Amino acid sequence: MENRPSTRPGTSSNGRHPNLRERQLPNGNIPPPPIPPPPQRQRSSSTIYHAKRTNPEYTDSINSAIPPKRLRTGNEEQHHHHQQQNLWSNGGGGGGGGREIKVAPDWSGNETTMNIDHEDEGQNQRERYFGFSSPPTSSAAMPPPSTPLAYQDTQNVHSLAHTKWGLRREVVMGFSRCGIEHMYPWQAECLGMSGLLTGDRNVIYTAPTSAGKSLVADILAIRKVVNERKKAIVVLPYIAIVQEKTRFLKKVLEKVRVAVPKRGRWDKVNLWKHLNIVGFHGGSKARMGWKELDVAVCTIEKANALINAAIEDRTIDQLGIVVFDELHMLDDDHRGYILELLATKLLCLAEEKIQIVGMSATISNVKVLATWLNAQFYECAFRPIPLKEHLVYDNNIYNYDEKLVAKLPPSELKELKDPVTNAIVSLVYGAVIEDHGVLVFCESRRRCEDVGKLLVKFMPTVDEEVREKRMEIVRDLATTSTGLDFTLEKTVPAGVAFHHAGLTTEERDLIAEAYDRGVIKVICCTATMAAGVNLPARRVIISPRMGRDFLSPTMLKQMRGRAGRKGKDTHGENYLCCRKEDLAPVKEVLNAPMPSIQSCLGGETTGLKRALLEGIATKLATSTESLHEYMRATLIYHTTPEPLKYLKPKILDAIEYLKEMNLISEDRTRGYFHATKIGNATVASGFGPEEGVFLHEELSRALMNFNLESDMHIVYQFTPIHSSTTASVDIDWKLMREEVEKLDESGIRAAAFVGVNPAFVNKMAQGGILREDSPQNISKARVYRRFYVSLMLRELLNERPVHIVAANYNIARGFIQQLSTTCKGFATTSGTFCKVMGWTGLAVLLEHYSWRLDMGVKADLMGLARIPFVKSVTARIFHENGLKSVEAVSASNIEALVKLLELAQPKKLRLREAEMGKMKSRLEQRAGIILEAAVAIYEQDCRDAAEE
Q1: In sequence order, which residues have a C-beta less than 8 Å from that of residue 703 and are 6 or more positions away?
Q2: Any long-range contacts for 698-704 (C-beta under 8 Å, 24+ apart)?
Q3: Which of 129, 143, 293, 663 sits CB 3.0–4.6 Å from 658 for a disulfide?
Q4: End-to-end CA distance of the chain
Q5: At 932, which helix (H) or strand (E)?
Q6: 941 to each of 7, 859, 885, 937, 944, how far by Cα in Å?
């Protein structure tokens, strides 16, 4: 991103500190048929026009009168749609004795004016608050001749610039910057369905992976946000996709400005602001609330919590559209019921006219879902890149009609005796020598790394330029907080990497970016990457297993859909490599239809309990009659024969449980239910009933006997509950005994307060069995698992690096990092729980420790750790060498900072001396960023202090 000059009054471009995010940065194989090189896309350059005031004297007088102030985005409360319509007319609006200032024509040739009152201090305050004055409005007229041709293609109905789609030109330009200028015929046909563009009808549609499903939803959401000034929520299943989607929408909409509602008739100034696009997921700390945001990109759980809060605040009328990406997640055993619950609440808000858009590549009963969601449905089989699919076993390649396509000659090498391994190596090599990318889906993390190390031996040689690019990736990996992984150090120079949850976020991002640029040619990955990361390839090689089990038809389809990259490949290829003894079950998976989506509320009553609790807490269903209406809006009601007969006893049992747990109470005289304080706290913090009850018991016990002599007790309290209720955490009892023995007296007391007995730990370390055969034993196991996880977190808070903690507990680095991220999110939601319960002191304490965990430092380094790259060990090294504050760092120099960064490196690279020199240049760049950021933070601190 370019560093634009500041638009704040009284601030020169030289005094602006750029946003830190802007700165960061074998023989015998069957070769594939010759393929022409992919066409080079010619991207037209866009003309940028800057609006300037034509009265510099007056502008200077304003600038000189207003002191510098922190740039903030508008967060005034949004008005209703009917109140906003008057804001869309061009011009300054209103007369009075104000002074008229001309604004230069915008890029579409329009001139706008605004009225300025010399005596109106309110305008000055608003300019200082929003950081800019009124920009030119968007025009529906034709663009000037200098506008690139792509934006003049208004006669082609498949062009995004066509008036039928109602997209402002800034939006069309934003899509073009992302390489999207035209839509496919199926997308135009889908958008042209009755009532869709006007927002009067809901829609469910299916299309294959890479067919462009998201564009339809993006257009509908953007129209709601930009044209109608409503809010949009985009619901996605995984954090990585949330982050990717947030970046995409920010890029598309970065040039769009929308009107800021006026405060009253006396307000004569037209003010505009950029759209606020915020990502919400576990571990994120969004500093923007519901009133200020325009687009919320959320995980399922965060979207549900956001909707609950909006209903509770009576601001749900500001919501215009909700997009459900990957709608097949309704069938997920662990999270599907939350997605169903979220959609049910939207259906109960029919009078608010919230448009629902759902999409997936793997739904078979789309008509049933459309009936449930009161939606139109559209099914598409279009795929922009043709796909060639193969089945490989016993060194033979067959198509799905079981016709022999080719033979793979067996190898005499020992490591290639296995036909599956031989097939993988041969197919990878055949694609790489043609300069194509390959994804190899493996059944486990260990297999990913083993295959990656094996492929290194057979990769073709490359020239010095390519090798240097790969060594740059190695150096980048070495400068991450966890240092250079030994396996990646061996594989990346050969153009091979692996990608799974055991890697840290920084490592995965670097690998994905290098693969996208073509520097890395092969990625060995686990099945979850098929749904979590958008990295297509020319050739996809698939293992039919995921762990010990065979792939589901849905997951297999997701993997196969990754083959073929639009704009880079003429076709895609996938190869399912299996053993002959597995042929029958593999064919069964291949021929199996996509499963019908079923409700997850019909099994155990956990989901039903939560559905009823949230319906009562949000006052969508507070009586017996309204509860029945509420349940009629669920998917289970539409997919169950005689639903009322089936659901009634389950509903009664769930209601009794909620009353017994003191989550709801019943007013028998008036005949309605209402949530108790515990119930409201549970819903507000996004927990299920069982989690809310458990957390209440834990925190209540903590408030009675809270131990603040050490951080052991508080760390336990913000250890996520779900980490202790799943089988993902296996306690190493011998290791736990060692760690408990290391605790000081205050740590032992904290362990006793939460219910951990050192004698029981010792018994388990000697071969005891932790039984979970009763509610009491289940609760006991939960406490011990949670305490075990809290021991890891305590080390992170005490500045132990992630890779050291991972090695100590024999757990993948990525798990430790993800645990840290999850804890930050859990601390936030636990804080919300405490605030609703009235435990404000505990909420503040949780917030403090959440920040410490985020920065990986003790309390004395909190200020220093605000500087990017100065976290954990690095922050301590800075402190011990005299740089104890942001001011001290800002007064330092590049050379001194590089020496300290070298001391903080986790492990030294075993590279040539010349490459070590290049490594130092990397550290010099980082030192420059640290120094500039420290100066900016220190100056901002000084300004804030002066204002106070």
Answers
A1: 839, 842
A2: 698/754, 699/830, 699/833, 699/834, 699/837, 699/839, 699/842, 701/753, 701/754, 702/753, 702/754, 702/842, 703/839, 703/842
A3: 663
A4: 33
A5: helix 913-947
A6: 20, 19, 12, 6, 5
User: Could you tell me if 846 and 863 lie in one domain?
Assistant: no
End position of a domain, from candidates 634, 657, 674: 674
571 or 34: which leads in pLDDT: 571
Q: What is the residue-wise DSSP string for 32-65? A: PPP-PPPPPP-PPPPP-----BS-HHHHHHHHHH
pLDDT at 948: 67
User: Would you say the C-alpha torsion 573, 578, 583, 588 has a positive or negative sign?
Assistant: negative
**pTM of the full structure:** 0.76
Q: Which two tokens stand for residue 495?
A: 């153009």
Under 8 Å between Cβ of 493 and 474: yes
- Boundary of a domain, candidates 379, 402, 424: 379
Take residue 821 and report the two structure tokens written for it: 């991220």
> d(Cα 600, Cα 334) in Å, to the nearest integer?
9
Which range marks the domain in which residue 332 is found? Answer: 163-379
Alpha carbon 20 to its chain centroid, in Å, reads: 20
**How far apart, in whole angstroms, are the C-alpha atoms of residue 460 and residue 496?**
11
Residue 854 has pLDDT above 70, yes or no: no
Closest-CA residue to 358 (of 236, 208, 187, 192): 236
Which range has highest mean pLDDT (138-147, 590-599, 656-665, 861-870)?
656-665
Model confidence pLDDT, tens digit, residues 401-449: 888 999 998 888 888 989 999 999 999 999 999 999 999 999 888 899 9
Residue 737 has pLDDT above 50, yes or no: yes
CATH number of the domain within which 509 lies = 3.40.50.300
- The whole-angstrom separation of Cα 180 and Cα 31 is 33
Of 203-207, 813-817, 885-889, which gets the smallest average pLDDT?
Answer: 813-817
Look at residue 86 and tell me whether its pLDDT is greater than 60: no
Q: Are 10 and 391 in contact (CB under 8 A)?
A: no
Least confident of 78-92, 766-780, 863-877: 78-92
Domain count within the chain: 5
According to the model, what pLDDT value does residue 187 have? 94
Residue that is written with structure tokens 């602006």 in the block: 16
Whether residue 782 has pLDDT greater than 90 = no
- Would you list the DSSP string of 91-103? S----SSPEEEEE
